[in-house]
Design a protein that fits this description.
With 183 residues, the protein is α+β, with helices and mostly antiparallel strands. Helices cover 28% and strands 36% of the residues.
Length: 183
C-alpha cells in the first residue's frame, strides 16, 4: 500500500500538512480539481471538463492507496485541501523502476513551499520504493513549475510540439517531458 505518514510542515510561518487523502474526501478532492482547472491554463483540463462523480473519485483514491507502485498525496492548510500530487507507477518488470506524476496547487498558495513539499515527499517515497526514474510533462511556458522541477534535479528529455491547444485563444503550446533519474 502506498501510504505515507502525515507530515506537518511550516514554511516561513505558513503551516500545512502533507498526507494521503481519505476516500471519504472524494467530494472535497473533486472541488479542488475543479478549482485548479478554473484557475490556471497549466492543468490538463479546461474549467468544466471534469466529469468524475464523487463515487468514481472515491474508487480512484482507494485504488491509488492500494497500489504499492503509485502514490496519491494532498496538502491541507486552514482545514482545506489546497493541493494534490498523483504518481502512477508501473507493474511491468521492465518498467517498475519508473513512474509519472502530475500535481496542482491552488493559486492562493503558490510560492509558499507547498509544491516543493509535495515533490520532496513523492521523491523520498519513490526512493524508498526502488523507483529511480520519475517523469512529468509540463507546459513549456510554465516557468515557475519548470524552475521548481529543475531544483529537484529534473532535466528536459524532450519536447512535444503543439501538444496542447487553447480553443479560446486559438493557440498551441509545447509540452516538455522532464525526468529525474537517481540510483
Amino acid at each position: 500500500m502506498a501510504h505515507i505518514d502525515a507530515k506537518s510542515i511550516d514554511t516561513s510561518g505558513f503551516a500545512f500538512v502533507i498526507r494521503n487523502p481519505d476516500p471519504d474526501e472524494s467530494t472535497e478532492i473533486l472541488e479542488l480539481m475543479r478549482q485548479l482547472d478554473s484557475e490556471t491554463e497549466y492543468m490538463l483540463r479546461e474549467a468544466g471538463e471534469l466529469k468524475m462523480t464523487p463515487e468514481q473519485e472515491r474508487h480512484f483514491i482507494k485504488k491509488m492507496l492500494d497500489d504499492d507502485k503509485s502514490l496519491f498525496i494532498v496538502a491541507e492548510a486552514e482545514e482545506k485541501v489546497i493541493a494534490s500530487l498523483a504518481f502512477h507507477g508501473n507493474h511491468l518488470k521492465r518498467y517498475e523502476h519508473q513512474g509519472e506524476f502530475a500535481m496542482g496547487v491552488l493559486q492562493a498558495y503558490w510560492g509558499r513551499g507547498v509544491g516543493a513539499a509535495l515533490v520532496r515527499t513523492m521523491l523520498n517515497w519513490a526512493s524508498e520504493n526502488s523507483i529511480f526514474r520519475v517523469v512529468l510533462k509540463v507546459v513549456s511556458d510554465n516557468y515557475r513549475a519548470i524552475k521548481l522541477y529543475r531544483r529537484f534535479g529534473f532535466v528536459e528529455e524532450g519536447r512535444l510540439i503543439k501538444d496542447r491547444y487553447y480553443p479560446d485563444k486559438k493557440e498551441f503550446s509545447d509540452s516538455i517531458i522532464m525526468a529525474r533519474i537517481k540510483f
